Each structure stands twice: as structure tokens, then as C-alpha cells.
């Protein structure tokens, strides 16, 4: 996959995460770090498919509990397995707009209603995470990156199949 440089004011994974925290707070359904990681992963994957570009530059690693962005994990690690209690105002997420906001809102509509354990199981059944974890035991920690190419290919195929193609 041709990787284009991100623009100077490009989003970071934490920006995407904060948008989802904002949405979860608005819905009155606090979000955990584990669920947040999966939503950010799916946002990157579907941006590659639908917009043909990366949403953020940080790598996504194939961790035991599914795809994870290390910087985002570290940011919200103090909350442990509990809900992230952070107030995020509309002003805090205003840099997300237009096409990206629509994408994230769509991700929230599809995946936001699912719980963290279901999302973990879902990512564990999908090829990008499985490929990155190849050769590792289920409980074995890993810093292996989930490739953008594998994400784009897998979810493009999934989209085409859902449209009755292929």
C-alpha cells in the first residue's frame, strides 16, 4: 500500500479516542480502554477502505486482547479495566469534522453498541489481527504491528462481499 505522509495537523490516535469518549459520554454509556482501542482500530481500517488514507500515523499492535495503539493505551491506563471518566467538550473535538466526523459517527453507530468483550472476540476472528499474531500463543504479549495493507485488503473484501460482489 502506498503510504502517504500525514498532513502537519493530522489526527493522532488519541484525538480519535477522545471523540469516541465524547460520544460515549453524550450517550451516557462510559467506555473502557479495551473498547476504545477496538473503535480506534476499526476507524483506521475503514478509513483505509472508504477514504483510501490513514486516519492517524501511530501503528496498531496485535496485543493479547486485540488491536491496540500503545500511546492511546498509555493515556487511559490509569482507568484500568473500568470506564474512562474524562469530560470532553465539543470544543475539545472540534478538529474532527467533515468526512472524518462522518466516518467516526458511522463507526460509533455500527461498533459502539457492542461491548468490549464482543469487539475483542470479533477482532480475534479477523485476518489482520490473526496474521500479525501468527506463531504466538494466545497469552503471549506482542508488539507486532497489524499491517495497513492487511487491514485495507480484509475490510475491502468484507465490504465487497456485503454488497454481493466477489
Automatic annotation (TrEMBL):
Domain spans labelled Antitoxin SocA-like Panacea: 36-129
Cited InterPro entries: SocA_Panacea
Top-level taxon of origin: Bacteria
Protein name: Antitoxin SocA-like Panacea domain-containing protein
Amino acid at each position: 500500500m502506498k503510504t502517504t505522509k500525514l498532513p502537519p495537523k493530522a489526527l493522532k490516535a488519541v484525538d480519535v479516542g477522545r471523540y469516541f469518549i465524547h460520544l460515549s459520554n453524550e450517550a451516557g454509556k462510559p467506555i473502557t480502554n479495551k473498547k476504545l482501542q477496538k473503535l480506534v482500530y476499526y476507524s483506521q481500517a475503514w478509513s483505509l477502505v472508504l477514504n483510501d488514507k490513514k486516519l492517524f500515523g501511530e501503528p496498531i499492535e496485535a496485543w493479547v486482547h486485540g488491536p491496540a495503539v500503545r500511546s492511546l493505551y498509555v493515556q487511559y491506563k490509569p482507568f484500568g479495566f473500568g470506564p474512562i471518566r474524562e469530560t470532553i467538550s465539543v470544543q475539545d473535538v472540534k478538529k474532527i469534522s467533515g468526512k472524518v466526523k462522518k466516518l467516526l459517527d458511522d463507526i460509533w453507530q455500527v461498533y459502539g453498541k457492542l461491548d468490549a468483550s464482543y469487539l475483542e472476540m470479533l477482532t480475534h476472528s479477523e485476518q489482520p489481527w490473526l496474521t500479525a499474531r501468527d506463531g504466538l500463543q494466545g497469552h503471549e504479549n506482542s508488539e507486532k504491528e497489524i499491517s495497513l495493507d492487511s487491514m485495507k485488503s480484509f475490510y475491502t473484501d468484507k465490504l465487497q462481499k456485503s454488497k454481493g460482489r466477489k
